[in-house]
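hi! just following up on the protien thing from before. the input was this:
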Amino acid sequence: QGQLVASGGGSAQTGGSLRLSCAASENIYGDYCMGWFRQATGKEREGVAFIDNVSRTTYADSVKGQFAISRDNTNNTMHLQMNNLTPEDTAVYYCAAFSSASGYGCDPKPDRPYNYWGQGTQVTVST
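and the predicted 3d structure came back as:
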């Protein structure tokens, strides 16, 4: 079974930056759509940023220009650089993946078959 391991969460002040990482086992990296979701307390899960197997990216409107997703194919790792953080970015962040062979677009639409999930990493932004 493949796995995703998220890391890099923590605390930041408003205007600060954090970088999240998601390490993937080799069998779920190469041709996989990968992305980040977040869930704040009392809110529904939200798709944040996505990157497909040829590094095309998709962002939620709420983070465009603020977050940047990338993938390091040498180390089977995906990153999310989060800049200019605000308290509204406080949430548990989850990385997720599904095979591009499914034919679905690499985005957060509800029918996308994200079948691999990381354990979640907490991001807390204070004023």
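The CA atoms of residues 31 and 54 lie 8 Å apart.
The chain has a mean pLDDT of 95.
cheers
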